[in-house]
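Section 5.1 Outputs to date
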Amino acid sequence: MDQIVFLVSGTPVRLIDLVLGAGGLALVLLVIVTVALLRVSRAHAVGAAASAERQREIDDKMAELNKASAELAGRMQTVAEVLGSRQSDLARHVSERLDAVGHRVGQGLEQAARTQTENLGKLNERLAVIDAAQTRLSGLAQEVVGLKDILANKQARGAYGQGRMEAIVRDGLPPSAYDFQATLSSRVRPDCVVRLPGDERVLAIDAKFPLEGFTAFREAKSDDERTRAASRVRSDILKHVKDISEKYLIPGETQDLAVLFVPSEAVYADLSEHFDEIVQKAHRARVLIVSPSLLMMAIQVMQAIVRDARVREQAHIIQDEVRRLVDDVKRLRDRVGKLDTHFRQAGDDLAAIVVSADKALKRGDRIDQMDFAEPAALPAQRDLLGGARAAAE
């Protein structure tokens, strides 16, 4: 046993040391295995206890779940019953609402149909108005075409201007104050002459419609065309002014002023705006250029002059009529006074009749009551009764 087996760092290792070391090692291993087994058995015991506890908890949870399931089943049954009753109520309400909605929809459709019928009626009326307007527009278009044809022809255009001038004069003056196509002492015939009150001289009016030059002036696209058109307008207007000044201004027979009537407001506006020197030359030549509106104003002034002259001529007749009217008013006043006197007398007679009726009633009451004593009357009452009796007699 004392035999040296090997050396470790110069220290001899004997066999007995190895045996003792192996035994100690085995003992240590045995202790370790025992401790490990104890720990494993303890762990198994703890796991078993935990499993038992877990199983118990699971059983408790399952019991609670079963109880909750039973309660849930009861509640579900209650909810089912409630839902059944609510479903019947809902079906009833839905049916009522559907009936109401159907009724409202029916009324809405009926009202919509009525409104649509009314709208269709109004639309038909408007279409009829549109058709009538279209017919009038067609007629107006034909009239415009006819007017265009008239304005394209010089003779027709002159007749149109003369007709418009005659309409203005005829509407504003009495027939005795004007003549159309009257012949003057120089054998010329103006379109119209107007006689003013208190003056033997006549006012000559002549209608002219110089349209071509103004149309060319308005439609000119270049300065050269505009200059040529302006020159044509000046020559045409000045020629008319010269003819009127030479023909219709006769001393002692016509007024010192003649009228050149332009039957177009547009032409007169262009003339006043772009050719003022022509208007001034016409004034110096004692020729007044007028448009339809200006001629109408002049005719209205002449109408006022004629009316004033007639009033002055008939002043004595008006005075006689006023005197007769004053006499009639005086007679009416006298007759009203007499009627007033009759009314006052009738009022007094009625008062006396009322007094007599009151006395008769009082006497009747006294007779009915068998009271024949004469009541003492006041002096004023006796006087009043006496006056009423005398008036009644």
